[in-house]
Amino acid sequence: MKIGLLGHGVVGGGVRAIIDEGATWEVRELEIAKILVKDESEMVDPRTTLHAEDILNDPSIEVVAECMGGLEPAHTLLKKALQKGKHVVTSNKKMLATYCEDLFETARENGVTVHYEASCGGGIPWMASLDRTRRVDDIDSFRGIFNGTTNYILSRMYSEGTDFEEMLKEAQELGYAERDPSDDIDGHDVRYKVSLSCVKAFDTLQNIQDIVTYGIRNIRKEDLDWAKANGYACKLIGTGAYRGDFISACVIPMFLKKDDVFANIPLNFNAIESRSKTLGPATFVGQGAGSLPTAHAVVQNLIDIWKNQDPEINDKSIRPIDNTLHTGVFYIRTKKIALFADIMDRRISEDAFLTRKISLVQADMAVKSAVDDTLFIAEVAE
Ligand SMILES: NC(=O)c1ccc[n+]([C@@H]2O[C@H](COP(=O)([O-])OP(=O)(O)OC[C@H]3O[C@@H](n4cnc5c(N)ncnc54)[C@H](OP(=O)(O)O)[C@@H]3O)[C@@H](O)[C@H]2O)c1
User: Which atom of ligand 1 sits closest to the CA of residue 73?
Assistant: First the structure.
């Protein structure tokens, strides 16, 4: 099966390497026919081209694998590929979470499919496990440590007793965090993954802006000191739950009890768990990023297509997000503590308090109306 590869960087280079090596008979059925690169200096392989049309207009190419990143031209190129009757595989969570409805619709109209295992959890077979579980069971909910960068920072802050800026700098020096780390530390990367996990787990499309999202940009040593002293670890958690006409979905730092399996996921590892009636909790732990682990997931999807095995044919319905049924106790540190009297249960320091049990919607409204750009919020496990 001939493949057109868009992008030849960390992930794309890994896909090319795995397929060229052809370690198994299934991989040997795949062939990288053409590779789109951006610059002449990258034309080190005879299959490279600077023109996307060379791939889109080649009728022998059945599948386009996108590993470029960014919204455009990735979205437009994949849409054109689908319109030309080619299946697509992407590792690009930001683009797919943003244009999910459009690309799924185009795929359906043209009798082809969109595959996205690598977009969520890197090499962890998370999407495939959801498909497998759903052959027997409905998924009730999922939760995950979906971002290795923030898990690295939180793990190191926790073990070393250091502050956020120091650990962010270390993560950048080690190549775990990008120079502009906003997508990771503000929770947007996890938001895309929660959105795509909802697509796979519940067959629902939702507006990503409605996924309540808090990151770790404002976390301080004193927040972790309180967590540690009270028997908690801190992790950035993305969750989704099926609630009939609605989906609840959010991204929020959580103070987890130390015996929770997620509390002990170290450094840049990811962990993701689904819950369903007959299987109960099923947890996956592994490398959520990296060239070969992520490329592995792309190649798995390519083999699915070759074997005609991907069940990505279910209709998707648009479901609104409603977090009123997501209730909990929240730790909030703010310089405007006087504004939170309505939801406060007990004060734990000069500028931090625990809420009474309230919905995430109430907590979010109180936080947004306080307009404090230093505020840190975490949900406290019961
Ligand atoms: N790295 C990971 O571990 C990982 C894990 C999971 C998912 N992902 C996702 O996978 C995607 C790719 O990530 P990556 O780490 O492989 O990024 P990367 O190393 O920057 O690779 C992207 C490649 O695509 C090229 N490119 C960008 N725009 C292009 C265009 N218009 N035409 C031709 N080539 C173009 C880039 O060229 P230039 O460098 O010249 O711009 C670069 O070589 C992203 O969506 C990312 O979120 C990555």
Answer: 31
